[in-house]
Design goal:
Structural class: alpha+beta
Number of strands: 21
Radius of gyration: 22 Å
Number of domains: 2
Distance between the termini: 38 Å
Strand content: 15-25%
Bound molecules: 6-diazenyl-5-OXO-L-norleucine
Shape: globular
Strand order of the largest sheet: 3-20-19-15-14-11-10
Number of helices: 18
C-alpha cells in the first residue's frame, strides 16, 4: 500500500513504504554530463555550452577520459554508445574489440588443459581496439562540431598535464600490473616513484597520438602511423594484432533492444552485450511478481531480485554471444511465456541452489575496468556510453611509443567452458574464441522513456555486476520512487548463478543479512558493486548523479 507522509503542508506519496533520504542530485535546466572524472565532465559541458550536441560531447568526454582515467578511459579498448535523438531516432554503436585473426579457441589453455593468465595480462590478452572507430562513426553520423576541436581538450590534458587526484594516485599505486611492463612503468610510475595527489601528470606520447587522430581521424589509428607502431610493438612482443586486423576493424550500428516495464519504455544494449537482454528479462520476471510491495532493501525484495538474477545469469552464460558468429535466441529469452516460467520457478521463501538451476532452453519460445558516462544536451538528445579496456589498466601494456594502454578484452571470451574468467563469470561454448569475433560483454548503456520522452539515462562498469547495477538503479527509480542520487548511491547486491553467492555491499542491516541467510543464501559482503552514472529528466529539470562510490562529477547548465 502507498503511504502518505505529511511534510508540512505538502502531501508526498511514497511508494511502497520507501522513505527517501533525499540526498540531492546535481540539477540543471538545459544539459547535463555525468562521468567518472571531473576534467572529462568539464570537457563535455564546455562542448555543450558551445552548441555541440550530446554526441559531440560524448566524443570529447571519451577522448578526455583516455587521458585522465587511464584505468578505464581508453583509445586502446572498446565499448558501446546508445543514442536517442529528439526526433525519436535511436541507435546503438558497437565498437567492441574483436579477436585478432590469429586467435583460436584454445589459445589460453596451458599444457594441463587449464586456462593460463595470458588472457588477462600482456600483449596476447589484447583484442583489436574499437574506441577510435566507434567515436568517429558516432561523430560522422550524428555529431555536428568539427572533429579536431572535440579532441582538443584531450590533447591539452595529455600535453600540458593535469593534477593527479587522490583517487588516481591511489589507483596507480595499487596497480601491480603496470609495474610489470617497462613502458607502463615509465609512463605511469616515473620509473618506480609513484605520482602523489596534486602532482602534475603529463603524457607526451599520448598527446602525440591524440594529435594525429585529431588531424587524420581514425585512419591514423587503423592504417597510419599509430597502426604501424602498434603492429610493430605486437610483433616485437609476441602479440597477435596485425596491421591487417587494424585495417579490417569496423564499428557497427545495431538496433537497440526495446522493452516495456510498468509503462516505461526501456532502450538498452543488444548482443554482443548480454546486459540489455538481462535487464529486459529480469524486468519481465519482476513486473508481475509483486516483489516491490516488500519495500526497497527488504530481505524479501532482495531475495526475489537475486533469484531473478541467478536465473538470468544461467541463461547468459549458455546462450549469449556475438550475434555475427552465433545465433543468439534473444526473442526466446524475452518471450512472455519463457519469462513466466522463470517467475514460477522462484520460491519467495527459499533460495534455489545454483546447482539446481540450469539455463531454461528458449527454443520453442522463439517467434575491473570500465567506465560509463551519461550525457543529455539542450535539445534533449541523450548519449549513454560504456567503454572499457576490461580489467583495471587493461592488459597492463602501454603500446610502445604511443602512450596508451591496451585492453585485455580477450578474457571476456570463454577460455574453457565451465572455468571462471577473471570476472568470475562461468561461460559456455557460444562465447568461445573465433578470429574476428567480439567477446560477450555485460556493458549495459540504457535509456528509459516515459510517454515517449526522455526520462532516465544510466549505465555502469563492473563486469557481470554491471547488469545488476543498472537493473537496481532502474528499479530504485521506477519501483521505489527514489531520486536519482539515492537510486545511484543505495547499497547494491548481485547474484550471477555461479558462484552460488549473494554478493552484498555494506549498508544493509544485519537483520536483513540474517533473513537472507535464513532463506538459504550464501551471503558475502563485498565493496563496490558498480559505479553508476545517471541522469533523470523530470519536471523541466535534469538531475545528475555520479556514483558516490567514485570521484565522478555531474555538471550541467
Ligand atoms: O564488457 C564487459 O562486460 C567487461 N569487459 C567489462 C569490464 C568491467 O566492467 C570491469 N570494471 N569494473
Amino acid at each position: 500500500m502507498r503511504e502518505i507522509l505529511a511534510l508540512g503542508a505538502l502531501l508526498v506519496a511514497v511508494p511502497w513504504g520507501f522513505h527517501a533520504r533525499a540526498a540531492e542530485p546535481v540539477r540543471a535546466r538545459h544539459a547535463m554530463v555525468v562521468t567518472r572524472e571531473a576534467h572529462a565532465t568539464d570537457a563535455g559541458v564546455a562542448v555543450l555550452r558551445a552548441g555541440g550536441n550530446a554526441v559531440d560531447a560524448a566524443v570529447a568526454v571519451g577522448f578526455a577520459l583516455a587521458v585522465t582515467l587511464p584505468a578505464a578511459g581508453n583509445i586502446g579498448g572498446g565499448g558501446f554508445m546508445l543514442l536517442r535523438v529528439t526526433d525519436g531516432r535511436t541507435t546503438f554503436i558497437d565498437f567492441r574489440e574483436r579477436a585478432p585473426k590469429k586467435a583460436s579457441r584454445d589459445m589460453y589453455l596451458g599444457p594441463d588443459g587449464n586456462p593460463t593468465q595470458d588472457s588477462e595480462a600482456g600483449y596476447r590478452a589484447a583484442g583489436v581496439p574499437g574506441t577510435v572507430r566507434g567515436l568517429e562513426l558516432a561523430h560522422r553520423k550524428y555529431g555536428k562540431k568539427p572533429w579536431a576541436g572535440l579532441l582538443a581538450p584531450a590533447v591539452s590534458l595529455a600535453r600540458d598535464g593535469f593534477d593527479v587526484s587522490y583517487g588516481l594516485a591511489r589507483s596507480l599505486r595499487a596497480s601491480r600490473l603496470l609495474a610489470r611492463f617497462p613502458e607502463s612503468r615509465r609512463i605511469f610510475q616515473r620509473d618506480g616513484a609513484y605520482y602523489e595527489a596534486g602532482e602534475r601528470f603529463r603524457q607526451p606520447e599520448l598527446a602525440g597520438t591524440l594529435d594525429r587522430i585529431a588531424r587524420s581521424g581514425a585512419a591514423d589509428f587503423y592504417e597510419g602511423e599509430t597502426a604501424r607502431k602498434l603492429a610493430a610493438g605486437m610483433v616485437a612482443n609476441g602479440g597477435l594484432i596485425t596491421l591487417e586486423d587494424l585495417k579490417q576493424y569496423s564499428a557497427v550500428e545495431r538496433e537497440p533492444l526495446r522493452g516495456r516495464y510498468r509503462g516505461y519504455e526501456i532502450l538498452t544494449a543488444p548482443p554482443p552485450s548480454s546486459g540489455g537482454t538481462g535487464i529486459l528479462q529480469m524486468m519481465g520476471v519482476l513486473e508481475k511478481s509483486g516483489y516491490e510491495k516488500h519495500g526497497a532493501g527488504s530481505a524479501a525484495s532482495i531475495h526475489f531480485v537475486a533469484e531473478t538474477m541467478r536465473r538470468f545469469f544461467a541463461a547468459r552464460n549458455t546462450y549469449l554471444a556475438d550475434p555475427d558468429y552465433v545465433r543468439v535466441p534473444v526473442a526466446g529469452l524475452l518471450d512472455k511465456r519463457y519469462v513466466a516460467k522463470l517467475r514460477e520457478s522462484i520460491d519467495p521463501e527459499r533460495a534455489t541452489r545454483s546447482s539446481e538451476v540450469s539455463a531454461l532452453d528458449p527454443a520453442g519460445y522463439e517467434s575491473s575496468e570500465t567506465t560509463h558516462y551519461s550525457i543529455v544536451d539542450a535539445q534533449g538528445n541523450a548519449a549513454s556510453v560504456t567503454y572499457t579496456i576490461n580489467g583495471g589498466y587493461g592488459c597492463g601494456v602501454t603500446a610502445p611509443g604511443l602512450g596508451f594502454l591496451l585492453n585485455n578484452e580477450m578474457d571476456d571470451f570463454t577460455a574453457k567452458p565451465g572455468s571462471p574468467n577473471a570476472a568470475g563469470l562461468v561461460q559456455g561454448e557460444a562465447n568461445a574464441i573465433q578470429p574476428g569475433k567480439r567477446p560477450l560483454s555485460s556493458m549495459t548503456p540504457t535509456i528509459v522513456l516515459r510517454d515517449g520522452r526522455l526520462f532516465l539515462v544510466a549505465g555502469s562498469p563492473g563486469s557481470g555486476r554491471i547488469i545488476s547495477t543498472v537493473l537496481e538503479v532502474l528499479l530504485n527509480v521506477i519501483d521505489f520512487g527514489m531520486n536519482v542520487r539515492d537510486a545511484v548511491d543505495r547499497p547494491r547486491f548481485h547474484h550471477q548463478w555461479k558462484p552460488d553467492t549473494l554478493f552484498m555491499e555494506p549498508g544493509f542491516s544485519p537483520d536483513t543479512l540474517a533473513l537472507l541467510r535464513g532463506r538459504g543464501h550464501n551471503v558475502e559482503t563485498v565493496s563496490g558493486i558498480g559505479e553508476a552514472a545517471a541522469i533523470l529528466a523530470e519536471g523541466g529539470w535534469l538531475q545528475g548523479a555520479a556514483d558516490s562510490r567514485s570521484e565522478g562529477k555531474a555538471s550541467g547548465y
